[in-house]
């Protein structure tokens, strides 16, 4: 009877009808990959230099050994780079890789039955049991032959020699070669060779290629300063200009900020213009709200003439760059009734039954000076394209950072499309989501493309709240895609905790923001000068700068301004403060004293802060010496970067004491 060596076409067709797999000889399963956002629907985020740890459950039937590789490549690279994966426990495998340049990276996994490693394991077991393995050495020679065919450089003759040794060792009465073959078969050198030249047959490939969106470094580490250009004049009663802002740049640079964020700089409408303190009727000469965008002078691509010209704005961008700063613009997708869109595209706005356009409301608040854009309009395509052209126009001016006002009130798929389309032309653009809303909505915006996000930090005030929130941001899936940007206050929010004007409270909130998060910002002169008087019963400012021009004493300094300059310098000098997710909380048996460790390479910083702004606190802190390579009986030095003081500590438990009226924080550099 003849032996059938090839599958006939009719048999192949029959197998297909039988719904057989493409290759039934694959035996490895790859599942439960991390990080993997929503089944690979969204990319994770990184900046150049980040190390990305990945894990997966990888296993097979039976008792054979397996090999697994992480495959990585940048969108510009033609080939995959392979990273060997290592066994962790319980069929969990892991690896890590670094991303070196902006753009999109892909990663996936491949694993297969490692017949050579299985052979090596079998050899070790039989040798340990005193069995003679001549047959196994012959099989090993075949494996070595296959490895030699793929080998390069000096590895090729080495493997050819190994194959010959295995054959010689398998010969009867050749004890010297046999013992040498046994030694080589179990050696680390041979293990290294089989890892370099594996027998990769019937490999299983993970079903998806996952994406990493690598932004430029500024997305991961930035320090924001917000000011209203119209309040930049140092002459009381005069409307500020871009040229006035330029005069402030040396001061802002000296304080260590690298992003200058400006609220809307466009023409402001006259219709229903708001007055001081959100008065529904404005008095003659009142400037209106910058968020009431648009007049007969233009809309989102026009410049408010009292601030200067477009050339003046471009000049500000260029001068700011000379001072190490980028200018961030504010995108508010809403219009004054005087905006050209209200006349040219009335279909972009929601109508009342009487045919008038519905103004903005956030009950019980009413914003009669603003029309919200209606994203369910039948002409939504034209609206989307208009917004894209607006962003491209801003980018052509030199803007590379955009803070988006209330993005959670616009469709998610709009943001995903807009950010993706604009970054095709300007890949270095960074979008910040100013969204204070429900957690899942904020998270979805980050997944859809926002590089940075506002947070609940403003309302996380005590030790328990802060530790729980930071653990969520840095230890859950959020760490892979949600980049927090911490703001103690904003021009919209005067939080209750700061309304007393108590100086230690301002210091505490600032120090927390600047050391917990690698991205943070302050509402400029208002925060510096510890402005705190509220609109009665609200988390808003009385005499808010949103509704009137303010005159600030730009020459005034205090303890907070000094501390801001010092801490920003320390942030630049210490890589551990340039990352958010490198956070470890330390045990302190006190409900107000909070300690946290941040380590990047050899830069090891320990922050201890008293969150009680009114009382001195003292306790013992447990330093995670096991994480730092410090023995329990070893002495080491901690150097307070804020005060210059040195302390000699020993082992895990050490004494700390902080008086908020003196300084509420130790910022300790650990030196061994």
Automatic annotation (TrEMBL):
Q: Which domain of life is it from?
A: Bacteria
Query: Where on this chain does alpha-maltose 1-phosphate bind?
Result: 274, 334, 369, 406, 546-547
Q: Which reaction does it catalyse?
A: alpha-maltose 1-phosphate + [(1->4)-alpha-D-glucosyl](n) = [(1->4)-alpha-D-glucosyl](n+2) + phosphate
Q: Where is the Glycosyl hydrolase family 13 catalytic domain?
A: 226-571
CDD domains referenced in this protein's UniProt entry, alphabetically: AmyAc_GlgE_like
Indicate the residues that form the catalytic site. 405 (nucleophile), 434 (proton donor)
Does the entry feature the keyword Ion transport, yes or no? Answer: no
User: Which keywords does this Swiss-Prot/TrEMBL entry list?
Assistant: Carbohydrate metabolism, Glycosyltransferase, Transferase
> MF terms per GO, please?
hexosyltransferase activity; hydrolase activity, hydrolyzing O-glycosyl compounds
Q: Name one GO biological process term.
A: alpha-glucan biosynthetic process
Q: How does it assemble?
A: Homodimer.
Q: What is stated as this protein's family in its record? A: Belongs to the glycosyl hydrolase 13 family. GlgE subfamily.
HAMAP family named among the record's database cross-references: GlgE
Which PANTHER family does the entry link to? Answer: ALPHA-1,4-GLUCAN:MALTOSE-1-PHOSPHATE MALTOSYLTRANSFERASE, GLYCOSYL HYDROLASE FAMILY 13 CATALYTIC DOMAIN-CONTAINING PROTEIN
Q: What is this protein called?
A: Alpha-1,4-glucan:maltose-1-phosphate maltosyltransferase
